[in-house]
Amino acid sequence: xxxxxxxxxxxxxxxxxxxxxxxxxxxxxxxxxxxxxxxxxxxxxxxxxxxxxxxxxxxxxxxxxxxxxxxxxxxxxxxxxxxxxxxxxxxxxxxxxxxxxxxxxxxxxxxxxxxxxxxxxxxxxxxxxxxxxxxxxxxxxxxxxxxxxxxxxxxxxxxxxxxxxxxxxxxxxxxxxxxxxxxxxxxxxxxxxxxxxxxxxxxxxxxxxxxxxxxxxxxxxxxxxxxxxxxxxxxxxxxxxxxxxxxxxxxxxxxxxxxxxxxxxxxxxxxxxxxxxxxxxxxxxxxxxxxxxxxxxxxxxxxxxxxxxxxxxxxxxxxxxxxxxxxxxxxx
Length: 332
Known about the structure:
By secondary structure, the chain is mostly helical. The chain is about 80% helix and about 0% strand.
């Protein structure tokens, strides 16, 4: 009976995590698309300074992580000092800014698909630089994702979707997305290095350190000289309070979503988190197509299915690898 209750409780917690991640990040994606395509006010102006979203997100997450540390931290020491995140903070500032700026040039579904192909630069660098040999199923996953993204990029986008973009330019948009992935790769590698040197570093410590440096770098870039873009973004928000409210909700969704991601990883592991976030991306594309008026052709839907089939197969391979490792540990 106790095992049954424990199992039921675990299922309910998992459902809670799925609902939290999906609702936070799907709504954040909707707001991101709204801010990049909507014309605000009677003058019909666009919010051109999309990289300002990064600064706003950094500030909100910095405050959020500080509050969480004060509420939940046990006062233990041994975590990474705040200054160790300075280099990861640079790439974590530049990379996401490029990903957001890409929405001026390509549609939201195209951006989500492009950013889902993270495995491509990882395997490419692993093979060419480090001489890593991957298995055939791993290459098959990469082929499905690369084929789906590239075919989607080559297919003609509907005129309705193009009319919403500020400056339609597919090569530039996809280029920014892949640069975002490259910077993300360096950020993740640096975070892994910090975690190995300071194993007692908590998720909140990482969130605080990363967003502290992100706030510093973005403040310098956006307000470091007269007539910098930050002043224009603030002026736009003053003239269009609706945009300011959307930006605040966008940041709040990011902070809440981080909470659910940390909870999922701590209770169910990184593989469960990867599965939830991957399915969330697919749902985001469906929501964008239905609610935001970004119709996809049958061929484009085929590309979407192709990409997520590759991602799903990759998750299955990771699960099998994890199962094998657990079997090897049992006799010991």
